[in-house]
């Protein structure tokens, strides 16, 4: 295989947007522009779909100043796609890379995107085309293997923690049952992040249900009742992907219509799970004030809730990808490894170790009861949330003796 | 009537919590504590319910430092209630005030709460009991008459604007139809605030539906189709309280079960409206990617999204209430009046002018098409959102000529 020609570099963004995905984009673009080998940095519109359609922007013509402002803007600045390329699709990608003499391909995305990079990398090798292909990690689900955590997750986790901190205060003021449904099809990390909104011992969420443990309706109802009996209120965090003992998603079980995306995944959005759980509690337990929210797109796209640690790391994985590509000798995926409390380092990991694999929450992060997290999880997550986390304070209520009711 | 004895002052919080309701509480408490006439400042737990149950905390025993921290914490620190007292209930309130020799009663809340203050005030007069009763405004709905705006609304509006700014970016990256359902039973102010998340001319929300205009399903579908045809994507803001031409709430029309609260109001929460509108678009227009979120409790309780202007004003209405009570000669409600761009002043307004009345959006704030806001509304709302609003930036995409597809 001849030497790689780095004069044209391509970067694209795939999958669900995150609060910091543009940090990775800008990290890759600015770092590429530092290398004299690189003449042009292209960006593909809407991920791999833009690649096969040859829809490229010349990011070499962007000002550094605007790139820095875009880096701080959430969601995918190049646009994204839900396409999950098969071999034929990847062959199309490869043809376009070849036609445009692209020597280096960076794809920012989750496990599906890393699989795309893996297939394109193989395709290039099979054709003897000198290509360097590097995957840059991103997913709010935090479900990439090898990585300690993935860029995008800390900011989404921060949103969830702050949302539950507020929901808990609201529920304290107007007691009842509150359910917050959080994104997470197979991995419960984001739902578990709700626990970081707790401060005082009786704070919610009092119950946390994640896909890693079977969701048993009877146990759920017993948990809610026990919490209501104890505190007169109950705040619940539930993953949209919770399943029963037979691995049937509760959302699918209760939903009337089932919608599937191009990956064959059932669409778990909408408020159905929240509303059905609400009805269940009202019917079976008789509590009147039961409220439920589905956090939906807010948790991944809300402008103005971001972890500075996440921003920094998302920027660095973009930069490191370029360094590994140009100074290194192999394709791969940039992975994040924790080295201290709190520090990280980056490595280039073979694509096969991450591609199309899903990581779920380890047992040590889940309480034996199955509906709470451990201190090990808090220790894991807290530094990722970054600086300036809001804090909640309470009145220390000194009771005044009753007069009419005659109590002391 | 004898002279008012200010030695015991009572403050309570009613209705839905807001991001800044504790600023008003702390403003009233700290200002009361400055007056040498005041010996004890009581707080009632859970609003008027705590009053009738004689559940009081002695806030004179709170440290100033902790009060300041509580002021910055969202939701009602004393707890709240949905009780809407009738005459009998108000007589109970009055009996307790009398028994505890309370000379001054401050109630922080919306139009229902101001009506409670009005009835209690009349009851005291009828009994010749020297009481000073002052209502302190609060509501995210912004629906109090006389006021330019109400504390709590600016912070909730900021959340909605930021949420739509993010949803718009997400929808740009992964095009389709996005619906965000916003709180607002009769007044569309909070839903209209979504317009403040727009920056570029093609930004969403592209369509805004508020209760002040009839929601006609056919027009809605035509609006969505026209936007999709024009931009290939569509972001929609809808008030939970939108009604058809016969004033039937669309949520009630489409919902299977109807839940009413103690005020006889239909509960509009849950994801039903969002999901039903989603189904409508899919069925009638055939668009596949239609997503909807109900912002629910996040918009009023999210920790970490607050307007500094709102904080300041909420604090001041609490302080002014005490000054009007002690230095003034009548009961009333503190009202906010705009005096410049941007400055406000406060007045004590007769309770009858605000109590149990509802203000909706004036025509000058609504576009003639009925599904957008005017610049007059933007001019009205922008200063309320406060400093440090996040801003979104875009790449200026310089297209690269196609090679395989042979286009220039």
From TrEMBL, chains A, B:
GO terms for molecular function: 6-phosphofructokinase activity; diphosphate-fructose-6-phosphate 1-phosphotransferase activity; metal ion binding. Its EC number is 2.7.1.90. InterPro entries: PFKA, Phosphofructokinase_dom, PKF_sf, PPi-PFK. The record marks 138 as: Important for catalytic activity. Non-allosteric. Mg(2+) binds at residue 111. One of its GO terms (cellular component) is cytoplasm. Keywords: Cytoplasm, Glycolysis, Kinase, Magnesium, Metal-binding, Transferase. The active site is at 141 (proton acceptor). Its cofactor is Mg(2+). Residues 8-324 form the Phosphofructokinase domain. Pathway: Carbohydrate degradation; glycolysis; D-glyceraldehyde 3-phosphate and glycerone phosphate from D-glucose: step 3/4. Substrate binds at residues 139-141, 183-185, 240, 297-300. Homodimer. HAMAP family: Phosphofructokinase_II_B2. Catalyzes the phosphorylation of D-fructose 6-phosphate, the first committing step of glycolysis. Uses inorganic phosphate (PPi) as phosphoryl donor instead of ATP like common ATP-dependent phosphofructokinases (ATP-PFKs), which renders the reaction reversible, and can thus function both in glycolysis and gluconeogenesis. Consistently, PPi-PFK can replace the enzymes of both the forward (ATP-PFK) and reverse (fructose-bisphosphatase (FBPase)) reactions. Belongs to the phosphofructokinase type A (PFKA) family. PPi-dependent PFK group II subfamily. Clade 'B2' sub-subfamily. This is Pyrophosphate--fructose 6-phosphate 1-phosphotransferase. The gene is pfp.
